[in-house]
Amino acid sequence: MRWKKRDAAPSIVRELAERFGLDLLTAAVLARRGVQTPEDALFFLEDDARFLRNPFLFSSMEDAVDRILLAADEEEKVLVFGDRDADGVSATTLMVEALAALGIAARYRLPTDDEKYGLSRAAIDEFAADYGSLIITVDCGISNHAEIAYAREKGVDVIVVDHHVLQGDVPPPALAVVNPKLADSGYPFRDLSGCGVAYKLAWALRFAKGGLYKQQIALLNVRPVKDAYVIEALRLSNLVETARIAETIVPGMVELERTRLVPFLKDRQIFVWDGEIQKRLLAKALGKAAEVNFYDVRPDVGRVIPQAAGASLVRLAEMSKIGKYSDKASGELDAFASLFTSFALRKAGCNGEAEGDALQLVALSTVADLMPLRDENRVLVRQGLAALNRKPRKGLAELVARQNLVGKRISSTDAAWQLTPVINAAGRMGKPDVAVKMLLADDPAERAAQADALLELNVERRRMGAECWDAVYPAARESAEASGGKFVIVGRPDIFRGITGIVASRLADTFKAPAVAATFMADGSAVASVRSARGFNVKGLLEYCQALFYDYGGHDAAAGFSMSADKWPEFERLASEYLSAVDLEVVEETVDIDAELPHEYLAPSLADLVDRLEPYGEGNAPLVFSSRSVTVLQADIVGKQEKSHLKLLLDFGAHRWPALWWNSADRYGKDFREGDRLDVAFKLTKNYWNGQESPQLVIIDARKAE
Q1: For the stretch 174-184, what's the b/e string if a residue is b when 16 or more beta carbons lie within 10 angstroms of its beta carbon?
Q2: Spatial CA neighbour of 336 closest among 270, 276, 283, 286
Q3: Could you tell me where the DSSP H helices lie in 407-443?
Q4: What is the pTM of this model?
């Protein structure tokens, strides 16, 4: 195994440390992880929901909100159509609850048994026959062009809320498409989960009921500069800044009507901070005859945010974090805009317990769907996990109890290994409604029953997965050998449809190559999952073979398709042709080192750094450290069955650390013994035993010290 410590320019490390008040170790770790811009640093160092991006940056968000508000006013029947996986289940639950807050008793539907992914004509027919008029798809819909056109013929409007990649260049003919992966979405971050996109819509709906929706607002501030005055203003629409100006006025030199301020402020509600001072400054700048009608928002803000009540904008600008995380100079108007936004969100109810319940779903979906833990996903997951640890929402409380997580601080790793696979199991076994019922039911007894049923489905899913792997592996190995290790393609009728994704993922991981796993259905179709490896983007393969498919879709690293089973040999030929010509990244087993630590750095406080840079997962792997010449004080072979692991006690001088080295018992006695000195690469984790938490090291690799 090769150890690789990425370069970190000392100048960048020093700049990060000075600008953001970091110690040099934290700054070096961030620099090695590619954190160089202020915005990158913001999402690593902050977890305030105030830093989340505004949903109205989506170009189609107002259209979606307006249509849903109309449905609420007209008491229309609304259907939420989701996907069967953990992301789709979470998104469906969140959307149903968001609509309920508007007074809409929406029904929901997800693909069950062998139904295909995405909106179906059968669902549309059934809904239209019951006089339904609005369908909201969540975590699906972007590939349902024909179905959405069919719904429109039936007089049913469709809003698509999705995050999958668009096939081709033309979106489906929906009333609104909210998808950050559309080229013209307007949204600056493309990697939200499907539930994350649904959360943005739910947030926008809450804001729309708060009184400022679609209101044309201007924030105004006047400040003296030597012998002149700077009058600055910005426009807000749904709290999105749309324009700003600044005029420098020398008293007596210009009339108000001849400035740019009049057309800029026309027909807008004008808000100021400290109206008496602003009135005096305007009079000095423009003369007493000049009149600007404004509203002093300071008293209102002070009642909602008491710590701001007695502060001037100058002081608020000094206190604000905005300037620290911006390449542009931040001033009084920026501080005013930030404070006004926080005030407006609180007034609109865009926080509180309901928000925490929704964010728990977003956090789980983000982890489950392997969305990169970068940008605002970090805040979403942090906030969601914090809410989960404070008070698990209904449904999740039952699941947390059954997974023996009560009293434990649940991390993104815990969520990925002990919560989301269980929720996923429902969909994989064709019964996603079990998970939705668990999350939506008001009756504790029903939630408990659904949680028990969910665990039973997970046990059955694991059993089927183990049996299927034993059956599939020989054919997979043959496929890998035939391709020279470049890819694996397996199609068999004995692969259960619900676990094609699991099989494809395990194939890709086992053979370190792109993998396709397909099952042949009784209706004559083939349903397949595709998983990436070695930097391969699966989108190219699907587009190359798209003429064979009924439908297809997914992400860059994971996707799926369906087709007629009799075309499977042709797919194998085309896929082999495409994959054989692709240059895959060279696979070399390496470990990326975030920092090499002197022994004195191995103090318990190192856990604070590890905690600070959570959550870990896709796009933000757990921190890995190395240290040289560490003495092995004790070594024991552990494990209930094959006793294949090592439990070590390592001496770092002032501190001794317990360490686990999985599947490495054979290294002891051959590569080292007690008393030897090792160079070690390791992660710092927490061990939970009998309700007690203690830090420990997990060895990734070790070698005899020179």
Answers
A1: bbbbbbbbbee
A2: 270
A3: 412-414, 420-428, 432-440
A4: 0.90
The separation between the first and the last C-alpha atoms of the chain, rounded to the nearest angstrom, is 17
Indicate the SS3 state at residue 237.
strand
Q: Is the pLDDT of residue 106 over 90?
A: yes
Residue 322 lies in a domain: yes
Considering the domain architecture, whether residues 60 and 202 belong to the same structural domain is answered as yes
CB 164 within 8 A of CB 538: no
Residues 6+ apart with CB under 8 A from 297: 271, 272, 273, 340, 343
Among 371, 381, 365, 372, smallest CA distance to 619 is for 372
| 572 and 596 housed in the same domain | no
Residue 192 host element (H or E):
none
Peptide bond into 604 cis (omega under 30): no
Q: Which helix (H) or strand (E) holds 145?
A: helix 145-153
Give the residue from 424, 438, 440, 390 showing the smallest Cα distance to 410.
390
Convert the pLDDT of each residue in 372-398 to its tens digit. 999 999 999 999 999 999 999 999 999
Question: What are the tokens at 415?
Answer: 């969520």
How would you classify residue 80: left for phi > 0, otherwise alpha for psi between -120 and 50, otherwise beta?
A: beta
Q: What stretches of 35-80 show up as alpha helix (H) in DSSP?
A: 38-45, 61-73
- CATH number of the domain enclosing 666: 2.40.50.460
pLDDT in tens, 128-181: 999 999 999 999 999 999 999 999 999 999 999 999 989 888 999 999 999 999
The CA distance from 536 to 19, in Å, is 37
* 643 and 594 belong to one structural domain: yes
Compute the radius of gyration of the chain from its Cα atoms. Answer: 29
User: Among 266-275, 565-574, 582-591, which is the least confidently predicted range?
Assistant: 582-591
**What's the CA gap between 686 and 577, in Å, rounded?**
47
> pLDDT tens digits, residue range 334-366?
999 999 999 999 888 886 667 899 999 999 999
State the residue range of the domain holding 381.
366-460
Among 105, 121, 122, 165, smallest CA distance to 140 is for 165
- Is there a domain that residue 34 lies in? no
Which backbone phi and psi does 229 adopt, to 5 degrees?
-135, 135
Cα gap 648→678, rounded to integer Å? 12
Residue-level length of the chain: 706
**What percent of the chain clears pLDDT 70, i.e. is strictly above it?**
98
Specify if 624 maps to a domain.
Answer: yes
Spatial contact of 362 and 386, defined as CB atoms under 8 Å apart: no
* Whether the Cβ atoms of residue 576 and residue 483 lie closer than 8 Å to each other: yes
The encoded tokens of residue 96 equal 């149903």
Please report where in the chains the tokens 């993922």 appear, as a residue: 505
Are 661 and 617 found together in one domain?
yes
CATH number at residue 148: 3.90.1640.30
Cα 380 to the center of its chain, rounded Å: 6
CB 356 within 8 A of CB 391: yes
185 and 128 part of one domain: yes
pLDDT tens digits along 557-575: 889 999 999 999 999 999 9
**Among candidate residues 388, 452, 527, the one with its CA nearest the CA of residue 84:** 527
| CATH number assigned to the domain comprising residue 254 | 3.30.420
Token duo for residue 233: 């203003």
d(Cα 19, Cα 24) in Å, to the nearest integer? 12
The answer to whether 517 and 482 have CB atoms below 8 angstroms apart is no
Same domain, 283 and 425: no
CB atoms within 10 A of CB 319: 13
Domain count, the chain: 5
| Residue 19 placed within a domain | no
C-alpha dihedral over 480, 483, 484, 486, to 10 degrees?
Answer: -80
Give, as one character, the DSSP assignment of residue 212.
-
The structure tokens 């994350």 sit at 196
496: helix, strand or coil: coil
**What's the gap between Cα 422 and its chain centre?**
19
